[in-house]
Amino acid sequence: MGTYFKVYHKRSRELVATFNEKQIVDFCISNKESIKKYIFETGGQKDSMEWEVFALKYAPLFVQKAKEREEKERQVSDSVAIEEPSKLPWLLLAGVAGLMVAIVAGALVYYYMTRDDAVRRVHDLSAPTEETPKPVEPASAAAPILPAKRDPAPGDTAFTGKAPDDKTLSAAWGKVKKGLTVSLSLADIKDEMDKYLPALETCFKERAQAGDRNLRGTVNMKIRVAGNGAVLDVLFTDDKYRSTLFSDCIGNAIKGRSFRPFKSKEQIFTYYYEL
User: Fold this and answer.
1) Which strands, in side-by-side order, build the sheet including 5-9?
2) What distance lies between CA 190 and its chain's CA centroid?
3) Phi, psi (rounded to 5 degrees) for 171
4) Angle of helix 197-209 relative to helix 245-255, nearest 10 degrees?
5) For a tag site, which of 52, 123, 142, 155 has the least CB within 10 Å?
6) Can you tell me the distance from the alpha carbon of 230 to that of 185, in angstroms, rounded to the nearest whole number?
7) Would strands 38-42 and 15-19 be described as parallel, antiparallel, or unpaired?
8) Considering just the CA atoms, what is the radius of gyration of the chain in Å?
């Protein structure tokens, strides 16, 4: 039996998931842009590891992944009758196994992770789509400028959404012909959250044009979804975004589109966008 790994959010200390040796590599690669926001534990071990320590200690897992991918791509290349130079750095991949010394091993793991941009969990909205208003001098250099706030509401800090009854859930599950899982996986959650990226960008632009400042940052959320896919609650866990018109815009967009159903009463998870 291989080693199992637990991954936690570094800030909230909430458990994200438990992975085997293959899954942990895939998770790290998929979340390379934000990997330092997680901490790691191995089976039976209570001491948490930062990303740098984990990458160095378990570098052989990433090396093995690189070898498997190299072999798979070599087989595909051999089966295609087109002669062209390979785009993969074969010499570097071939030398990974011999460069397992401290910092060099960690550098190679990072290099391998940055090669594949097919899956991204953190989405960058820094493209030149924003019409930024002219800067306004802050009233006090010591006081940070926050996005426009509204009066606090109970749903800002606690779950208040009403969960559907069993009859409603059963009716929703009965409409699913296949693929109904007990819960949403990390990949499922990412796919669902990607749907809201256009709305996120729209909210960002509208609030910037309305005069909001300091919108950029990490938008941390705690989301509660019912088994029929309805989004019951979206909490913004940081004071910067909590009770703001910007977060209201994002929250309404997320609640406005359902997730795919899953066969549990509800599921709660954390997620964030990097602006």
Assistant:
1) 15-19, 5-9, 38-42
2) 6
3) -65, -40
4) 160
5) 142
6) 17
7) unpaired
8) 22
263 token code pair = 């066969």
Contact 258, 226 (CB under 8 A): no
Angle at which helix 59-78 crosses helix 102-115, to 10 degrees, equals 40
User: At residue 116, does pLDDT exceed 70?
Assistant: no
Q: What is the pLDDT of residues 13-30, one digit of tens each?
A: 888 888 888 888 888 888
Whole-angstrom distance, CA of residue 234 vs CA of residue 247: 9
One-letter amino acid for residue 209 of the chain: Q
Q: For the chain, give every domain's residue range.
A: 1-121, 154-274
SS3 232: strand
Q: Do residues 122 and 33 make contact, with C-beta atoms less than 8 angstroms apart?
A: yes
- pLDDT higher than threshold 50 for residue 193: yes
At 54, is the secondary structure helix, strand, or coil?
helix
Q: Find out whether 234 and 254 touch, Cβ atoms under 8 Å.
A: yes
Span 143-155, average pLDDT: 86
Whether 221 and 238 have beta carbons less than 8 Å apart is answered as: no
As a whole number of angstroms, the distance between CA 39 and CA 194 comes to 24
Note the pLDDT of residue 245: 95
Q: In this structure, what is the dihedral angle of CA atoms 241, 265, 261, 29, given to the nearest 10 degrees?
A: 60
Q: Do 113 and 32 meet the contact criterion of CB atoms below 8 Å apart? A: yes
* Dist CA 259 CA 275 (whole Å): 23
